[in-house]
Fold this protein.
Amino acid sequence: MKPAREIIYRLPVVVRLTHWVVALALLILVPSGLQIFNAHPALYWGDTSRFGHSFLEVGSENNQRGRRGFLRIGSIRLDTTGVLGVAKDGTGRLQAKAFPPWLVLPSYQDLASGRRWHFFAAWFLILAGGVYVVANFFNGRFRKELLPTRHHLRAIGRSILDHLKLRLPHGEEATHYNVLQRLAYLAIMYAVIPITIVTGLALSPAIDGAVPWLPYILGGRQTARSLHFFSTVVLVLFFVIHIGMIIVSGPINEMRSILTGWYTVRTAPGSRTARKVDQP
């Protein structure tokens, strides 16, 4: 017999709404953050920036081959011409710019506008993330759907191997998160995003004036900036992997789920799939 198809209610409204708000906020936060980074494309540890003492720098220089872009991490230096360090202006000439205009918001150099866009979107991220976290605790879904059990943890090795082989969960297995999904969402929603928010607040002049001890407990203003940058990189990598998994798993079914909450699964003949399955 052919597998039966069954439509289940997979994602409740609060999850879908907060998901889209966070996604849209990140689409503004990342390019506006790169606009801010372009104003001084170097990272430091501690409280103050000291020219020539950064541990990471994106820059450009002139040599016998013309203007070249580079990325320096510690003592390692990589030629990044065409990717980072230099970009073409409106006339087609190369100019020093850490990230190219098509990646930043606004596309031209404007630190003030970049900061306004960045802090505007940040409050939507804080609001949506807060609603998501609180809702998960109050309705019990944090424990039921996100917190991995011993059974889940024992299956990490097999789950990693299955994902590497693109052997993804299907049927009734797809109605709940597997161990890798649980750990990833726990890390992103309860660690990476909070770190991004707290370090971002430490960089706000208004917040810094109200709670001047915040940058101090983070190890200094420049340490907060570096942590903010790296946590954002993790979010971008998660976003790329997330989109990739949606494409591999079946984009139509996955997008219908995040838009309407309803998800189609294939079930074995005679099986009983729950009519309503809540997932984070």
Observations:
- The beta strands are 4-9, 42-43, 56-63, 66-73, 76-79, 86-88, 94-96, 262-267.
- The two ends are 33 Å apart (CA to CA).
- The CA atoms of residues 136 and 245 lie 23 Å apart.
- Residues 42-98 form one domain.
